[in-house]
Amino acid sequence: MNRKFLLAGFIILQPLTVEASWQERLLLSPSKVKGMQSVEQGQSASSPNPLNPRVITLDFGREISTVSSLDVSMEDEGVPSSVTEEFETVLEWLQDPPLDLSESDNLQISWKKDIDLNDNEPPEPRLTYAKLSNQDQDIELIVSEGKNNAVLLFKDEMLIDSFQPPIMDAQLTSRFGIRRHPVYGGARRHNGIDLAAPLGTPIMATAPGRVAFIGRRSGYGLVIEIEHDADTISRYTHLSRSASGLAVGDTINSGDILGEVGTSGVTTGPNLHYETRVNDRPVDPLTEGKRILSGTIYQQQNYQEVLYEARERFQSIIGTSTDPSLAALSE
């Protein structure tokens, strides 16, 4: 299979485009090009000057035609497993029932990856945009850049769902409703959702509000509760610790860091148990709870602008440049 890796790094200065001899496209600023040249002059990428830390954020994109299953096609095209898992998890959050990914004919997908030139371990690559297309419909998914990482879902250009996940890189391991308890056994009501993630993963507020409670509660372990409008709270449990300086009464914005994933309380491993409650009645965080809280993330009038910007950015990642001024860099 003839494969191309599509690579782009975006910066504030006017970007430059390189089509290298190994068919890799790279967008770098003049300052980043200068930095890369200094590596070639003897300062290896694995051991640069520790007094000059440098991190480059790169954008990758793929256009994939499904041959068998979408999972296999994404793996064949070099999409990182963490991006594939995040993509599927987000679709689970936003689609009820989830999409059958094997039925989609084409996929456009992009993600970001940080490269630390001082050889520090970077975070996992992170999903930014995806478009699933077949003869019936176009489904587009955007993870907004910036502080809140809100997720938007479009169907044929219409915004049909949005959500601020409490954790971006997590596996949905248990849904709301009756389930067999993983510790005590037997069928019990599960009042929230469980998101498995590594110990210490940041946990974000899913909507604006006020810190109503920080403390320990029985099997929940360390708990933070955020009070929202209309007698609604969001509850975050099993934390290892709360964010430094966070206190009851603090005003919280969507996407603010509340604490870190832990194993406090009754758990089988590091995870976040997340609830939404209305008048102390637990509601499904992925349906009713999400509808109540998500209205504060994006207003309907600006959603199309967000969609068009995401499309344009994807096209700039995979686009071909004919700028002759950088021809020497690919020789």
Which key phrases capture this entry?
signal, 331 residues, alpha+beta, 2 domains, Glucose Permease (Domain IIA), 5 helices, single chain, disordered N terminus, 9-stranded mixed β-sheet, metalloendopeptidase activity, 10-stranded antiparallel β-sheet, disordered C terminus, Nuclear Transport Factor 2, Chain: A
Notes on the structure:
The protein is an alpha+beta fold. It folds into two domains: 5-164 and 305-330, Nuclear Transport Factor 2, Chain: A (Roll); 171-294, Glucose Permease (Domain IIA). The protein has helices at 30-40, 70-76, 81-94, 288-294, 303-318; strands at 5-9, 16-19, 24-28, 55-65, 106-116, 126-133, 138-143, 151-155, 158-163, 171-174, 177-180, 187-190, 193-196, 202-204, 209-217, 221-227, 232-242, 251-252, 257-261, 271-278, 281-283. The strands form three sheets. Strands 10, 13, 14, 15, 16, 17, 18, 19, 20 and 21 form a ten-stranded antiparallel sheet that branches. It has a nine-stranded mixed sheet with strand order 2-3-1-4-5-6-7-8-9, with helices on both faces. Strand 16 (221-227) and strand 17 (232-242) form a beta hairpin. The radius of gyration is 22 Å and the shape is globular.
